[in-house]
Design brief:
By secondary structure, this protein is mostly beta strands. The chain has helices spanning 3-8, 58-61, and strands at residues 13-18, 24-28, 40-43, 48-51, 70-72, 78-80. It has one domain (3-80).
């Protein structure tokens, strides 16, 4: 997903968290389709964005659920869970 194009739409911020790799991940609604589309994960420091595969932030932000935390690898690919 094109980070700059996404941010130019000024999407609605839902939540944010810091993952185990110390990446600050911010969750956004899709700027056109809103909650009818998957939540978008963004790492502003890396200028990366991608669809999460989720329609709710709860699993990704819950302190008790390490299975679903989002993180970006060195190739810029979004991963969910274990690395």
């Amino acid at each position: 997903m094109n980070y700059d194009k996404l941010m130019s739409y000024n999407p609605f911020e839902l939540d944010s968290m810091t993952n185990h790799k110390q990446q600050r991940i911010t969750f956004y609604e899709h700027p056109i389709y809103g909650d009818e589309e998957q939540i978008i994960c963004v790492c502003h420091d890396l200028k990366l964005a991608d669809y999460s595969g989720f329609y709710d932030t709860h699993d990704m932000t819950s302190e008790t659920s390490d299975d679903y935390y989002p993180w970006f690898d060195t190739d810029g690919k979004l991963n969910i869970g274990d690395d």
